[in-house]
Design brief:
heterodimer, A: alpha/beta, six-stranded mixed β-sheet, four-stranded antiparallel β-sheet, 10 helices, globular, B: mainly alpha, MetI-like fold
Chain lengths: ~270, ~250
């Protein structure tokens, strides 16, 4: 983010930002993706990071999830002023990552299996809680089915259930809806929005419309090293529907910005 | 349809064999015809049966032990980093050693009984099983490794619930190869030195020009090996289906 933009947005009356990237630098295969990036993300709402493929969105998310080896990046990621701990986040990707040999219910409760033999086991997720959530997500009649018997949208709902049941304050979404058909994607966006209303959501996407539909805050990532531009979304609260003139002009603006940066993306 | 086709092929080959024997009038102590072999199979069945049972026992024991050792090694290799350095040379050694050349030594050290044949089988199948399973364990999808870390999975639980099941298709290919090569190892072991088993019987029959008996033993061996492979294949397919996993395309 340029200092000018920073100054511009600091003055706005947003709730205090709590997830902070400070001096974040990261290169991948000799290419400098981020150089001393500063980024403030707001808790309790949806932060959308929008950019072309390959710009480094996923690296940013992986850094948040604690998945980048420390030696690969420099800088700090703070959550409420302290270093972000990996057990404060849950993670959902484009691939549903369901285990094919487990049922819907068992998949949603995967955390219990994976943490059962930990030295200091956390209290297990209650089965009733999982069942109730799956009913809410419209999967109540499919609890005993295996992933192969479900449609793509249903599988992604199971992944959403697993993510929600982890019950972490920060939820990272790595283009979770981009493999779905348009209608299913719409449904999933609404469902996810409803379920993750009060969490701190950080979602990456390459789809301007998706960003405009869901984001309370939208950041455009472009160039190498990445430059951030903040997009002010329409007043209307997400999930925003349809084709209002305002939404359309926002989308046009984003597309124009991204197209301009196209030459430097690779 | 598939069974019918293989039956047809078998019938065709047998008929060709009989035709060749009739045509060339080759003496039965060089190449007996299928009818003669069938006769030997029936009349000498009481001789053949205990030898066949002995060889079957060797195959099953050798396979189980070799597969078990291979799986344990693969698990150790995949989980204990320092072991990798120590185990991989041994692994490559067992692969590059001409195991058949070791057969006389094994018989010398372990005697004429079961032990030398089982050792032979283990040496032959240890590498394919270990490398196939290890390979599978190393190929856990990257996203899964990431998810495991975000979900704070313990190493052991992650191994048991994710890595091992995902490695099963690879292990299955390794076990199939092993099931095919176990009978070879066992028979070679018997040739070098034994007092029982189909290999022993074949050598014995050969020495006494009882070629029909040799062929009868061969037929039994072939049937046994085929049946064992089919059973292994069936069980592995069941296992993979139980885990809703796809077969490897090899």
């Amino acid at each position: 983010m340029s200092s000018l933009e920073k100054a511009m947005h600091r003055t706005e009356a947003f709730p205090p930002p709590l997830i902070q990237f400070r001096d974040f630098s990261f290169s991948y295969k000799g290419q400098e993706l981020f150089d001393k990036l500063d980024l403030d993300l707001t808790t309790g709402c949806w932060n959308l990071l929008l950019g072309r493929s390959g710009v480094g969105k996923t690296s940013l998310l992986k850094a948040l999830a604690g998945l980048l080896p420390d030696k690969n990046y420099s800088g700090e990621i703070l959550f409420g002023g302290k270093k972000l701990a990996p057990d404060q986040v849950s993670w959902m990707t484009q691939d549903d990552l369901l285990l094919p040999w487990l049922s819907v219910l068992e998949n949603s409760l995967l955390g219990n299996r994976l943490r059962a033999w930990n030295r200091s086991p956390s209290p297990p997720i209650a089965i009733q809680e999982a069942e109730a959530l799956l009913w809410n997500l419209g999967l109540g009649r499919h609890l005993d089915k295996r992933p192969a018997e479900l449609s793509g949208g249903m599988r992604q709902r199971v992944a959403l259930a697993r993510t929600l049941l982890e019950d972490r304050p920060v939820v990272l979404l790595d283009e979770p809806f981009s493999a779905l058909d348009a209608l299913t994607r719409n449904e999933m966006q609404n469902l996810a929005y409803e379920q993750l209303m009060h969490k701190t959501v950080i979602m990456i996407t390459h789809d301007p419309r998706e960003a405009l539909r869901l984001g309370h805050h939208i950041y455009l990532l472009k160039g190498s090293p990445v430059q951030l531009t903040r997009i002010i979304p329409p007043e209307e609260a997400p999930p925003r529907a349809g084709f209002s003139a305002e939404l359309q002009s926002c989308e046009d603006q984003i597309i124009a910005e991204l197209t301009l940066s196209g030459e430097t993306a690779k | 349809m598939k069974i019918l086709r293989s039956l047809l092929v078998m019938f065709g080959l047998t008929a060709g064999w009989q035709f060749l024997v009739t045509l060339t009038e080759v003496p039965p102590y060089i190449l007996p015809g299928p009818v003669v072999v069938a006769e030997a199979l029936l009349t000498r069945f009481s001789t053949l049966l205990p030898h066949a049972a002995y060889t079957l026992g060797e195959i099953l024991l050798g396979f189980s032990l070799g597969a078990l050792l291979g799986m344990i090694s693969a698990l150790l290799l995949a989980t204990v980093k320092p072991l990798q350095v120590w185990l991989s040379p041994i692994l490559i050694m067992t692969q590059s050693l001409p195991v058949f050349a070791l057969a006389p030594l094994l018989v010398l050290w372990l005697g004429y009984g079961l032990a030398s044949k089982i050792a032979m089988a283990v040496l032959i199948i240890y590498f394919p099983v270990t490398s196939a399973f290890y390979d599978g364990l190393q190929r856990t999808p990257k996203d899964w490794l990431d998810l495991g870390r975000v979900m704070k999975a313990s190493r052991l639980a992650f191994l048991w619930h994710v890595r091992i099941p995902f490695a099963l298709p690879s292990l299955a290919s390794g076990l199939r190869v092993a099931m095919v090569s176990t009978p070879i190892g066992v028979i070679v072991g018997e040739w070098v030195g034994s007092s029982q088993g189909l290999g022993y019987l074949m050598l014995h029959a050969n020495g006494r020009m009882q070629i029909d008996l040799l062929f009868a033993a061969l037929v039994i061996l072939m049937t046994m090996a085929l049946a064992l492979y089919q059973i292994t294949d069936l069980l592995l397919k069941r296992l993979l289906r139980h885990f809703s996993l796809e077969e490897h395309k090899t």
